[in-house]
Amino acid sequence: MSAAVIKKKVKVPNLVGLSARNAAIVLRAAGFPRPDIRYVESYEKRGSVVSQSPTRGQIVDSDAMIRLTVSQINLIRFMPAIYQREAPDGSNLLRDFLWVIQHLADDVEEKIDGIHTYFDPYEAPEEFLPWLASWVAFTLDDNWPVEKKRYLIKQAVEFYRIRGTVKGLKLFLKLFTDVEPEVIENEWPFEGFRIGVTSTIGVDSVILPPVNRAHCFVVDFPLHPEEVSDELIIQIHDIIQAQKPAHTTYFLRFMGERKLLSSFGIVIGEHAVGSGTEVVVEDDYDPDAEPEDFDIGVDS
Questions:
Q1: What residue ranges define each of the domains in the chain, with the CATH number in brackets?
Q2: What's the pTM value of the predicted model, to 2 decimals?
């Protein structure tokens, strides 16, 4: 049985006299959702809050809907007098219908007046953040909290200054995985295949294309292979490929048991296996066993 969710209690601020736009800002800062606005004809300043429910000072849940009554001029006042006649009970169907039109028109006007806020990551609506991130070619993770998304979009241009560097690579990997790896430059974990020196299959030999250590680096993650999902491995490879210099080659390594996830591949016949090649050989290798007893997988 799931535990009950404890809702945060918030004190309702005083909104009467404020403009509807400023009242919405105050409510958002206090932790309330967007208010429910109703229009009414009043002698108060157009667009100002005439009344609110709940009233000021009440303690309510932070997700409670605050209803505001806002002074506004009904569009029926710009129509001929015959349309402004009221029924004996004081109702007017056309007047009520035009309130809906007024809401739609004011909503469009509000967006136009506040169009500049859409270009500020800290003020733009949450649903607009992915579009804003695409302008700076920055990828957002849907699982990130909205505060983190806003901060990263704001800093995206600064991040590009360190793109292709060790600092930038470690930063992006930590942002997307919440784990900061160690990046070792000019390093490669294998010496290559040398007969009589490093030639025991599955122990000290790896067949790879020629490697220039000056253009290589190793990414060491402080995670055990069993803790790493396939989705995370793919994400790590995508990040490294996007952030590393194009002429360099990397080797991804995890702590504990060796898990070969290199950016190189084995040459098979005339074709080379691409990035993400995985070669796994069982630790209990028997040189006298039949070939089918080996567990050798190639995954391009």
A1: 9-119 (3.30.10.20), 179-293 (no CATH)
A2: 0.53
Question: Would you call 103 helix, strand, or coil by DSSP?
Answer: helix
Q: Kind and range of the H or E element at 267?
A: strand 267-268
Closest CA to 235 of 153, 297, 172: 172
What are the tokens at 47?
């667009």
Q: Positive or negative, the Cα torsion across 79, 81, 83, 88?
A: positive
For residue 264, what are the contacts with CB-CB under 8 A and spacing of at least 6? Answer: 208, 209, 211, 249, 251, 277
As given in the structure block, the two tokens for residue 100 are: 């809906």
Q: pLDDT digit string (tens) for 88-132?
A: 888 888 998 999 999 888 888 888 888 888 888 988 888 899 999
**Which residues of the chain are under the pLDDT cut of 50?**
1-3, 257-285, 287, 289-300
Distances (CA, A) of 45 to 96, 207, 300: 21, 80, 68
Distances (CA, A) of 237 to 26, 230, 274: 44, 11, 12
The torsion angles phi and psi of 50, rounded to 5 degrees, stand at -90, -40
Contact between 95 and 77 (Cβ < 8 Å): no
